[in-house]
Each structure stands twice: as structure tokens, then as C-alpha cells.
Amino acid sequence: MIGIVNYGAGNIFSLTSALERQYLNYGMVNTEADLDKYTHIIIPGVGHAGAAMKKLEQTGLVAPIKALKKPVLGICVGMQLLTDHSEEGDAKLMGIFPLKTRLFDKNQGIKIPHMGWNNIEHKNNALFEGVINLTQFYFVHSYFIEYNPIFDIATANYGTPFSAAIQKDNFYGVQFHPEKSGSAGEHILKNFSNLKQ
């Protein structure tokens, strides 16, 4: 069972629809006690990282999430919340990954936000098992996770290389939207559901 952290900053409908298409059971995490009901936890997120972090703090779930030993997946802004700091709103985040979330540099001649399909180059990681390398996934974001080879499990390029996916212990993050990335994205969600605790 997958628990979706319901903190008012996630596009939950498209995510639940993707889980249903894969016959994956899910429920909502509203309180600390709810975390115990599920084997895998997803933190969705859209919009402003600083505002999302404030909403997450108001739920009282930050410390309990950080203490989890079961698989956790942050999606888009949910991934950014796992880092130390975001330039968006100069926000202090959860600090699970010692990484910064930074604004793309429009001086590189790129449009911001980075919106649409982009290829990712992934490493040998259970999250990407069965996914052909350089498969395209769907992105919508103005801020990116700085590349760090220690945590990077998939890389994309948009003016600069950035982390499309990261892992540290039981914590995973993807910058793209698997729920909007067709069969490859749904395969990622299926792989996540199969990760062992």
C-alpha cells in the first residue's frame, strides 16, 4: 500500500489515476499515525517550494517523515523538499539530501520554466529497472536539484546537467512527473511500489 502525503501542495488526482492504472493500492497520509498504515510513501508537490514546505510543517509530518525507514519518493516539488535549501523563497527545506535547489539561468538562452519532454540518462538503480536509457519523461519546473554524483541516479540536461532523480538510503526523488510520463512513468511508480523495506 502506498501512502500519499496529503498536505495541500500536490497534484494528487493525476497521481492517483496513474496508480489506479497500475492496480496499485493507495491511501492518504494526513497525520503521523497514518504513516504506519503504508509500506511506501509518496510526497507529491507542485508550485512554490517555500510555500509547500510551510504547508508540510503545519501538518507536523516533517520529523516523522525524516525518521522513516520505508521507501519514500518525492515527486517534483516533493523531491525538492528533500534537499537542504531552495532559492525559491530562500527556503530551508527538510535537509535529507545535502543538496541545493537552484533557479535555472535564463542567460543560458533557455526558457523558464523547463516544460515538456526531456531525455534522462539513468544509472543502474532499482527505480529504473526495465526503463530504456535516454527515455523521455515529462518535466515542469523552474528550479532544479544541483548535480552531485553521490546521490544522482538519473541526469537530464537543460542548459546545464541537473539531477532528474536522486537516492539516499530509503529516500528517492524524481524531478519529472511520472504520473504524466506515459507508460515509462507508470513503470517507475510500479518499480517504486516493489522496492523492499
Explain briefly what this protein structure is.
This protein is α/β, with parallel strands linked by helices. The protein is built from 5 helices and 14 strands.
What is the average per-residue confidence, as pLDDT, rounded to a whole number? Answer: 96
Radius of gyration in whole Å, from Cα? 15 Å
Low-pLDDT segments, ≥5 res: none
Strand content: 25-35%
- What is the number of helical segments per DSSP (H or I, 4+ residues)? 5
Sheet bearing the most strands, described? Answer: 8 strands, mixed
Which sequence of strands runs across the widest sheet?
2-1-3-4-14-13-12-9
Net shape: globular
The termini sit apart by: 12 Å
Succession of helices and strands: EHEEHHEHEEEEEEEEEEH
The beta-strand count equals 14
Helix content: 10-25%
Structural class: alpha/beta
What is the secondary structure topology, with strand pairs?
Elements: E1 2-5, H1 12-21, E2 26-29, E3 40-43, H2 49-59, H3 62-66, E4 72-75, H4 77-80, E5 83-86, E6 91-92, E7 97-103, E8 114-119, E9 121-122, E10 136-141, E11 143-145, E12 152-157, E13 161-168, E14 171-174, H5 182-194
